Structures are given as structure tokens and as C-alpha cells.
Amino acid sequence: MAHPLTEKITQQLTQQQASGLLRQRKLLGSGTDNHPVNFDFSHNDYLGLASSTELAQALYQGALTYGVGSKASPLVSGYGEAHQLLEQKLCAITGHQACMLFCSGFSANSTLMKTLFDSTDVVIADKLVHASIIDGLVDSGAKLARYLHNDIDSAERLLAKHPNNVLITESVFSMDGDSAPINALSALCQQYNSWLIVDDAHGFGVVDPHGSAAITAKQVDIQVVTFGKALGCQGAAILASQDVIDFLVANARHYIYSTALSPANAYLAYAAIELIQKSPHLPSQLNDNITLFRTLASQAGINLTASQTAIQPIIIGDNALTMMVAESLAQKGFKVGAIRSPTVPVGSARLRITLNAKHTSLQINQLVTQLALLLIDQPIENP
Ligand SMILES: Cc1ncc(COP(=O)(O)O)c(C=O)c1O
């Protein structure tokens, strides 16, 4: 008799395959049918730091000075000088009192939620917050009250119903690229004696004109930043008051029972922040590229959303059609994200195009030409 798990796995894989929702990995550097990827508009390395020689050298230097592995969890002996250096830097640029590091943004978010809340809590969150927040809240047993995406009135109605509470949002939304009205949410939270928690994964490091973070302790009570996007490396941090961090360090099971971020990686993230601070041309090049893409795409008649950030979605609607457009682009050497439900609501499947500071005007021009061909001039249709 087949093992019940084998049956379950086979059944689910078959269903996902049949509905066109089977997610599969592709080896980096190869597009559909092994077409080479010449132009990559799919990743979150917004400033192009992931392949920088300076950061490769920093990683080497960090490994030599502090070691490649942390060897233990932070509460045993895995918390060292490199971690402290990075935490102090993060506190200095955001104004928070204290900080703790994680190996990924997913673990930082989910740990934060399941350590702070329990089944007696009602937590207010934007309808589109990241899966890591939702998973952590589900694990915590808290009730989730969701307000309409970026809608201040809807958020206020929930805060009025549940004052003295917590409101959670992303700064820049990962699949839509639009920015939350942080100042308005912050004022609202103060009015209702509530904390504001912001997942700043896609904002941190990008909107950083003078070396300090765009979102700081002045506006938010707890801030999660990640190092795998604009910083081009890996890991994450929770920033908050000393009391909150002391509480999390003492109670967050994921932090207590897991090997700490490697010191080489902590030093690397520190070096990435320093590099961004001395390279104001990078965010400015990124902004020029965003403007160029938006200008060319609207001139070509392509429907854009209101996003002004590096994340530029083009909503196609249908899952299969979205995959077909992305595959046609891949055949021409352009890699873009193809995002389907359930990651985004049904009927809003999209191309997720991400710009970075290192794209050339020619590459952006060529991408828009291909998009116009596939979406406007000779639109692909579902068979
Ligand atoms: C909004 C948001 N938060 C958190 C994460 C998780 O961060 P990490 O990739 O470091 O796990 C992501 C990752 O894609 C994200 O988009």
C-alpha cells in the first residue's frame, strides 16, 4: 500500500500541474528552454550591490576577521562583535534604541508576530501584508482584522473599534510597489494609542538620500528591515525600543533555538550600508531608471499602476496568459517576474518588473519595445 503522504503529495502535485500553478525552480542564468537571460528585470537587488567587487571583498574581510560561521545561537555564544557593529549601525540610521538580527526577513517577521501576540489579541493589518506576517499571526492564534489596502479610512474604522492596539503595514508593497502612507498611519496610531509595525523590506536602503533611513523610530514603533534586497546580501533585523528587543531576545523561540546569522554576513550587511551611504548616485540612478521605464511604457500605451518605486507591476489578470507573456519575454532574453494567484488576488496575475540602478537606458528601451509588441501590437491571447 502506498504511504498516505505519498498519495497526498502526488495528488497535490497533479492538481497544481493541471491548474497551471505548479511552482518550479529554474537554474539561474537560464530562461525558458534554456534561452540565456541577457536582461534581468526580476530581482530585488535594487542598487546592483549583490555582484559588487567591493562587497565581495567585504565578505572576505568579514570572514577573515570574524569567522564564516557564528557556531551557536545568539544566547549561547553566537553573538559577536560583527553583529553588534551592524546593530549599532542600524540603530544609528533609524533612531531605534535596540536591534536583533535574523538570517532572513521571513524569520524576523514571523518570529516577531508569534512572540508578541497570542490568542487574546486582535491585530490590525493591511490586506496585502507579506506571507511571513500572516504565517506568524496564524501561529500566534491572534485574530486578524484587515483594512483595505493603503486605505486610511478603513484603517481608522478598525482602530476605532479596537483602540490601544497594533497596526501592521509594509512600507513598499512587494507585489504592487506602492508605498504605504506611513506618516498618516503613524498619526492615526498615536491618536488611538496604538503601535505601528512596519515591514520595511523593500524600502530600506533604496530611499536613502542622505545616509539615514527614510523610515525611522520617529514614525514607527517596530521596524523590520531586510538585507536581501537593496543591500544585496542576506539577513534581516527587528528594530524597536530596548524593552521590546529585550522581551524578544528572551522569548522568541526562533532566536533562542537557531544558529545566529554568520558574522561574515553581519559584517557584509554593515559594509553594504556604508557603501550605500557613500554612493548617493545609486538611488538617484535607480530613480532615473524608474522614470525612464514609466515614461517609455506610457508612451507605448502600456497600462501601468501608480507605483513610483522600483517594483513596476503590469497587471495581465489571467494566470496562464501572464505565464505566456513572461515566457515570450524569456525567449528574447528578458527575465521578469510572473506572479499568479494565490500570491496575488485571483484575476490580478501580473508581470512584476523590477528596475535597478545598473540597468542601462538601452536595456530599458528594449524591454519596453518587447512589452509593447506582446501587449499592444500583437497581443498574446489564451489558446
Ligand atoms: C515584504 C517582504 N517582507 C519580508 C520578506 C522576507 O524577506 P527575506 O527574503 O529576507 O526572507 C519579503 C521577501 O520577499 C518581502 O517581500
TrEMBL record:
The keyword Zinc does not apply. Pfam families: Aminotran_1_2. Residues 40-370 form the Aminotransferase class I/classII large domain. The keyword Disulfide bond does not apply. Its EC number is 2.3.1.47. Keywords: Biotin biosynthesis, Pyridoxal phosphate, Transferase. It catalyses: 6-carboxyhexanoyl-[ACP] + L-alanine + H(+) = (8S)-8-amino-7-oxononanoate + holo-[ACP] + CO2. Pathway: Cofactor biosynthesis; biotin biosynthesis. This is 8-amino-7-oxononanoate synthase. InterPro entries: Aminotrans_II_pyridoxalP_BS, Aminotransferase_I/II_large, AON_synthase_class-II, PyrdxlP-dep_Trfase, PyrdxlP-dep_Trfase_major, PyrdxlP-dep_Trfase_small. Belongs to the class-II pyridoxal-phosphate-dependent aminotransferase family. BioF subfamily. Its cofactor is pyridoxal 5'-phosphate. Homodimer.
